[in-house]
Amino acid sequence: MYVCLCQGVTDGQIRDAIYDGCCSYRDVRETLGVASQCGKCACLAKQVVRETLSEVQSSQAGLAYPASFVAA
């Protein structure tokens, strides 16, 4: 879905930017130019960033615990 019509940025591009290393809305804005013209998309863009960062953090939280193995 298009989030920013002025720059032609989709929610998928925002998610990809986060997966590629953007760590905040500011990073996404600087990378993709989202909300840099009319600004009407800022709320939706922030929401996509928040949701994606939460998903990334929760998936990484599972990796923080050492694996335990049981001898069979």
TrEMBL record:
Record keywords, A-Z: 2Fe-2S, Electron transport, Iron, Iron-sulfur, Metal-binding, Transport
One Pfam family, short name: Fer2_BFD
InterPro entries: BFD-associated_ferredoxin (IPR052371), BFD-like_2Fe2S-bd_dom (IPR007419), BFD-like_2Fe2S-bd_dom_sf (IPR041854)
Record carries keyword rRNA-binding: no
Protein name per its UniProtKB record: Bacterioferritin-associated ferredoxin
Domain BFD-like [2Fe-2S]-binding: start-end pairs: 2-49
Organism per entry: Aquipseudomonas guryensis
Keyword hit for Iron-sulfur: yes
Necessary cofactors: [2Fe-2S] cluster
Protein family according to the UniProt entry: Belongs to the Bfd family.
One Gene Ontology molecular-function label: 2 iron, 2 sulfur cluster binding
